[in-house]
Amino acid sequence: MKRKRLDSQGNILVGTTAILIVSLLLMAVFVITAINFIHNSNIDSEANDNFKYIIDDYSNNLEILGRDSIAEATQKVYNGLPVFNSEDQIKKNLNNLLEDENNEFKEKYDIDLSSEVISVEPTDSPWKVLFKVKLNGKKGNEEFSQIVERNASIEGLRDPLPIAKLTIASGVMAYDDEIHYKTALSAYMILHNLDSPESYIEATAPLYMKKCPYDPYIHHGDPGVLKDCLDNGYFHESADGSCYLCRLEGKGKCPHYGMEVFIQTHTPIKNESLSCSDHVVFADHYNGEKINPDDWDSLILDNSHRKKYGLSANESY
Ligand SMILES: [Zn+2]
Ligand SMILES: [Zn+2]
C-alpha cells in the first residue's frame, strides 16, 4: 500500500517535470522565432526605408503607365488588329514603357532598376485593373527586391468591344463620342438568325467608358434620369457584362465582374428584337421590346433589365 503511494507520487513528479520542460521548449522556440522575425523585418524596413521615396515614385507612375499600356492595346483594336490575349499584350506594352521608366530613374536617382510585369488582372471593380510588377533595385552596396501593386482606371478609355467583336471590316465606326454601328449589327444578327435585324440598322452606343452615377440603378425610372444617362453615354456595372480586359479580346461576356451599356436603336419598327444591353446583343441573345413603342429612340429591353433599371413598359421617360 505504502509502495503504491510512492509510485503515484513519482508519476506526478515525472509528469509535472515533463510538462515544465515542454513548456520551456515551446517558450524558447517562440522567443527565438520572434527575435528572428523582428530582426528580419528590421533589415527589410531599413532597406525599404532607404528606397521608400523611389519605390513610392515608381508606384505612382505605375498607375499612369498601367493605364497607358491598356490604352495602347485599345489602339491596336481600333487599328483593326486583333488582341488574342489582352493580359499578354498589356504586359508586353507595359514592360516596354517600364524600360524607359527604369532609364529615367537611373538619371534621376542614380539607381539601377530592373522590372518585370507579373500580372494584369481584373478586380472586384470593373473600372479598375490590377497591375503587379516585380521591381529590383541596386544602389551602391544596397539592394532591394519588391513586388509593386497598383490599380489603374479604365474610365475615359474607348470601349474596344464593338470593334473587337465585329471587326473594322464590318463598317462599324467611331466618331462624335459614339460608336455608329451602321449595318454591322444587322449583318451580325442575320448571321446569327436573330429576330428583326433591321431594327438595329444605324444603332449607336457610347464610345468612352463612363461610370453611371445613378446608383442604385433602379433610379433610372425616376423622371429625367434615363434621358440624362443616355445623353451622357454612361456604362453600368453588370455581373453578366464583360470586363475591360475581355472586351479587348472581343468577348461579349466573361467570368469576371464587368459592365454593360445600352445599344440605342433609332427606328419606327415595333417588332420584338434583341434586348439592347451589349452583353445580350453580343453573347446572350434574348429578346426584349421597346419601352415606349411610339418613340423611335426607345430602348429595347427585356423584363429583367427593366427591373434592374426601374423601367416598366408603356411609359415615356
Ligand atoms: Zn445609367
Ligand atoms: Zn473578363
Summarize the structure in words.
The strands form 4 sheets. The chain has a 3-stranded antiparallel β-sheet with strand order 1-2-3, covered by helices on one side. The protein is elongated. It is α+β, with helices and mostly antiparallel strands. α1 (2-78) packs across α2 (86-109). It folds into 2 domains: 45-148; 161-309, no CATH class. The longest helix is centred in the first third of the chain and has 77 residues, at 2-78. It is built from 8 helices and 11 strands. The model has no long low-confidence stretch (mean pLDDT 92). Helix content is 45%, strand content 18%. The structure holds zinc ion (2 copies). Residues 212, 214, 220, 229, 234, 236 line the site of one zinc ion (ZN).
C-alpha Rg, in Å?
30 Å
> What molecules are bound to this protein?
zinc ion
Separation of the first and last Cα atoms: 100 Å
Shape: elongated
What is the helix fraction of residues, given as a range?
Answer: 40-55%
How many structurally independent domains?
A: 2
Count of helical regions: 8
Most strands sheet = 3 strands, antiparallel
Low-confidence stretches: none
* Proportion of beta-strand residues: 15-25%
- Specify the oligomeric state: single chain
Count the E strands.
11
